[in-house]
Amino acid sequence: SYQVSIKGVSKFYGNFTALNNVTLEIQKGEFFTLLGPSGCGKTTLLRMIAGFNTIDSGEIYFDDMFINNIPAHKRNTGMVFQNYAVFPHLNVFQNVAYGLKARKFNVNTINAKVEEALKLVQISDMKARRPSQLSGGQQQRVALARAIVIQPDVLLMDEPLSNLDAKLRVQMRSDIKKLQKNLGITTIYVTHDQEEALAISDRIAVMCDGTVMQVGTPEDIYKKP
Ligand code: ADP
Ligand code: ADP
């Protein structure tokens, strides 16, 4: 997996500055969280790393590779969104296999990789179901399996637990954390929930109005007034 370097990145929507000169270094294998209130620029930054938003100024690197101009599908990133975003017409197996088919793996390899990913997210018994036959938490496990099955160098998650009830959120949080540590994937996670950020992260960037106010471990962040 990659180290991710964000150097002086800004984003403007007309006269509005959504991100103002953001600089961050995310280490290989780190669980790194962007924390801040709604509208502070977290999603904008995540989408720039994924390649879905253009970068108006500044630079992003994966290790030493300059990626500003590399299109999203050529960055080896996995993405999980708040609203599940699984394909409704495909069953669980087919949803997870989708990215592997696009990458032209052979059938045996696809089957093995999908089985492994489903086992990791604990939904092996739901392969043949459609998303409409799954709970929100189960759909989010499908989305997670689909993101990790391609062995991404960077895993990007945007409020993946926000639509779940409180109890499930705590369970999924711990499952995601374990999975991330086992696989060692560099992970960038977006949330507005401070408790969640403190529980799940190796380090946290606290954002406000398009800028980074503070970067530190949960202990560092919690200690500060
Ligand atoms: P967060 O993820 O922290 O809630 P966003 O990155 O979604 O914040 O948005 C940051 C700011 O940029 C917000 O004020 C939002 O309204 C604005 N914004 C985001 N996308 C657009 C867009 N496509 N056009 C105009 N303004 C946008
Ligand atoms: P295609 O769209 O090319 O006809 P599918 O998407 O139906 O193929 O299936 C692709 C691969 O996934 C095949 O190897 C198929 O056997 C396997 N597969 C699909 N659904 C399941 C399932 N519920 N359990 C196990 N394997 C499945």
Could you describe the 3D structure shown?
There is one protein chain. This protein is α/β, with parallel strands linked by helices. It has seven helices and ten strands. The chain has helices at 42-50, 92-102, 107-120, 136-148, 166-183, 194-200, 218-223, and strands spanning 4-13, 16-26, 31-35, 57-62, 65-66, 77-80, 154-158, 186-191, 203-208, 211-216. The chain has a six-stranded mixed beta sheet, with helices on both faces. α2 (92-102) packs across α3, α2 (92-102) runs parallel beside α4 and α3 (107-120) packs across α4 (136-148). The longest helix is centred in the last third of the chain and has 18 residues, at 166-183. The chain is globular. It starts with a strand and ends with a helix. The model has no long low-confidence stretch (mean pLDDT 95). Residues 13, 18, 36, 38-44 line the site of one adenosine-5'-diphosphate.
